[in-house]
Design brief:
Layout: E1 3-9, H1 13-23, E2 31-37, E3 43-49, H2 52-57, E4 66-72, E5 87-89, E6 92-100, H3 103-109, H4 121-132, H5 137-145, E7 150-158, E8 165-170, E9 175-179, E10 182-186, E11 198-201, E12 207-211, E13 214-218, E14 229-231, H6 247-253, H7 255-263, E15 267-268, E16 271-272, H8 282-285, E17 289-294, H9 296-313, E18 317-321, H10 322-325, E19 336-342, H11 348-357, E20 364-368, H12 374-378, E21 381-384, H13 397-416, H14 422-443, H15 446-456, E22 461-466, H16 469-485, E23 488-493, E24 510-515, H17 521-532, E25 537-542, E26 555-558, H18 567-585
Parallel strand pairs: 17-18, 17-19, 19-20, 20-21, 22-23, 22-24, 24-25, 25-26
Antiparallel strand pairs: 1-4, 1-10, 2-3, 2-4, 5-6, 6-7, 7-8, 8-12, 9-10, 9-11, 11-14, 12-13, 15-16
The structure holds 2-deoxy-2-amino glucitol-6-phosphate.
């Protein structure tokens, strides 16, 4: 969602802030702004609806070395210049990510309405700080913290404190770092990765003073808090397009390497091993049932996990949408394993669901891509996926590394619970290790797939069908197509179609049929014939080398001859490329789909 950056140091702030905002464009936004302090004790403000390049066009006159910048994803109030951040009230400028729940009450109680020019909850906080400011920023922020409710990451400038940025957060993410060029705060690392790979997570309810020569933190009781620095193992090039037209295409191509990085350190003597993460076999021994909690694509990875674990473990596995789970009465006991899955590790619904789950069980495990993120820190155990930074809003490599982790977990649980022999587990893991090279082969189908999508681009609707693991996978295929090409797409269990949905199949409707599971192959082929007979344009994905009959399909994309449990990795590359080339063919930017944000930090 909103992107935040603050810089104070020896270099010009304007370019650093604008470059940082550009790197965070992937988070999704509709307006951008910047404020900086001048040595004379003034705050200059620039903001506009539109892109960071529009902001750059109006930022030509500052020599300041201290400022804050923001990209806004509208929640409270429309997309207008007034609603864009920073908000300046009196001699205070503020940027905010999150939602202030009690802003109406604050306006009334502190009589702030005449100070406000926007419709936002954020401006109310700027006005409140301005009203309560007594010359001591830290003391004032503490007072404000006792009043505001909700989630927030705030970056604040006080005109009479040139060169300093103040910040504080609750729930919403914010990182900090100090390096030879100065000090930074940001919503995510991509904003300042070109300066340093070291960063720390700003602890909640800690007041942070950011200065050129260092960062000071104190808790609400006035105690000093030391930053706990982490270091990432990727650099600025990982957050650039590297010659690809879009981040999404680059990330589709990065999948084989991402999977290798994720699984290889966790395979010892051909078997899964999580000892480096401090997770020993006892953790899995008494697991009676599993609940997987996540949102969107991460939830779809969980559905792959459910299909596998139930098949091999024969224990109940539930996959729950995080925003539903958190308002339900969970059916969990102390032997329930709760697995939260999240690329960003900051999705607020998943985080809240994890907090609720912890009231019932100590067996919480998260699969997270971003090191040190909130979900990772709050879980009892974490297994990091190593996809590297995922910049495109449409998740691709995060999905396949999450899925690969579920394969490792299936084998681990199977061994520990004596449901899988050592030989079977080794064979299973060997198949997993073969996945990256098989995926590489699929990437070469891109020209063929691009051609096929010309038909897809003409349709307003599409269906994805399959059975078993293919059905689990088709949900992700449909989501990818929807979110970037704006074609309405639905996934259906192939056998369910004739119970209603087949009524929607008319001449020319694209149906992407996945038929890679031998035990239900003939059934899926029958279902395909049913839609084909009603005029559907069928793209079939299967391992069958003998498909010549065009009464079955209009186009056939052939999968390599891998074990049925592992075809999802090859099939998903095809589905991702179908979505990508359809979107690009329709003239859309798949990296920044409308209305979407990369990391959803509001409820
Ligand atoms: C999918 O392409 C989306 N980006 C979205 O569904 C995403 O997977 C979801 O918002 C969850 O995000 P997370 O993995 O960061 O928690």
């Amino acid at each position: 969602m909103c992107g935040i950056i603050g810089y104070t140091g020896s270099l010009g702030a304007s370019d650093i802030i604008l470059d940082g905002l550009t790197r965070m464009e992937y988070r999704g936004y509709d307006s951008a702004g910047m404020a900086y302090t001048t040595p004379s004790g003034k705050i200059a403000l620039r903001k506009t609806v539109g892109k960071v390049k529009d902001l750059r066009a109006i930022c030509d006159d500052d020599e300041s070395t201290c400022g804050i910048g923001h990209t806004r994803w509208a929640t409270h109030g429309g997309v207008t210049n007034a609603n864009a951040h920073p908000h300046k009230v009196g001699n205070v400028a503020l940027i905010h990510n999150g939602i202030i729940e009690n802003y109406h009450e604050i306006v009334k109680e502190y009589n702030l309405s005449s100070d406000l020019v926007s419709e936002t909850d954020s401006e109310v906080v700027a006005a409140l700080i301005n009203k309560l400011y007594d010359g001591d920023p830290t003391k004032t922020i503490k007072k404000v913290l006792s009043i505001i409710q909700g989630s927030f990451a705030l970056g604040i400038l006080f005109g009479d404190r040139p060169g300093s940025i103040y910040c504080v957060r609750n729930v919403s993410p914010m990182l900090g770092t100090h390096c030879k060029d100065g000090s930074f705060i940001a919503s995510d690392l991509t904003a300042f990765i070109q300066f340093t790979k070291r960063y720390f997570i700003i602890p909640e309810y800690t007041i942070v003073t950011v200065r050129k020569d260092g960062i000071l933190m104190e808790d609400l009781d006035g105690n000093n808090v030391e930053p706990e620095y982490l270091e990432v193992n990727w650099d600025v090039s990982a957050a650039e397009k590297d010659g690809y037209d879009h981040f999404m295409l680059k990330e589709i191509h990065e999948q084989p390497q991402s999977i290798i990085r994720t699984i290889t350190p966790r395979i010892k003597d051909g078997l899964p091993d999580f000892s480096d993460e401090g997770i020993d076999d006892d953790f899995f021994k008494n697991v009676s049932d599993i609940t997987i909690i996540a949102c969107g694509t991460a939830m779809h990875a969980g559905i792959i996990g459910r299909t596998l674990i139930q098949k091999y473990l024969k224990i109940p596995v539930t996959v729950t949408i995080a925003s539903e789970f958190r308002y339900e009465q969970p059916i969990l006991n102390e032997n329930s394993l709760v697995i939260t899955v999240s690329q960003s590790g900051e999705t607020i619904d998943t985080l809240a669901a994890l907090r609720l789950a912890k009231e019932y069980t100590n067996k919480t495990l998260s699969l997270v891509n971003v090191k040190g993120s909130s979900i990772a820190r709050e879980s009892n155990y974490v297994l990091y996926t190593h996809a590297g930074p995922e910049i495109a809003v449409a998740s691709t490599k995060a999905y396949t590394v999450q899925a690969s982790m579920f394969y490792l977990l299936t084998a681990k649980l199977g061994l520990v619970q004596n449901k899988m022999s050592v030989d079977d587990a080794k064979a299973f893991i060997k198949n997993l290790e073969a996945v990256p090279s098989m995926m590489e082969n699929m990437l070469s189908l891109d020209t063929h797939i691009k051609e096929l999508t010309k038909r897809m681009q003409q349709s307003n609707n599409a269906f994805f069908i399959g059975r078993g693991l293919d059905y689990s996978l088709s949900m992700e295929g449909a989501l990818k197509l929807k979110e970037i090409s704006y074609i309405h797409a639905e996934a259906y269990a192939a056998g369910e179609l004739k119970h209603g949905t087949i009524a929607l199949i008319t001449e020319g409707i694209p149906v992407i049929a996945i038929a890679s599971q031998q035990h239900v192959y003939s059934k899926v082929i029958s279902n395909i014939r049913e839609v084909k007979a009603r005029g559907a344009y069928v793209i079939l994905i299967s391992k069958d080398e003998n498909i010549t009959d065009n009464s079955i399909c209009d186009a056939h994309l052939r999968l390599p001859d891998v074990d049925d449990d592992f075809t999802m990795f090859e099939s998903i590359v095809i589905l991702q490329m179908i979505a990508y080339y359809t979107a690009v063919g329709k003239g859309f930017n798949p990296d920044q789909p409308r209305n979407l944000a990369k990391s959803v930090t509001v409820e």
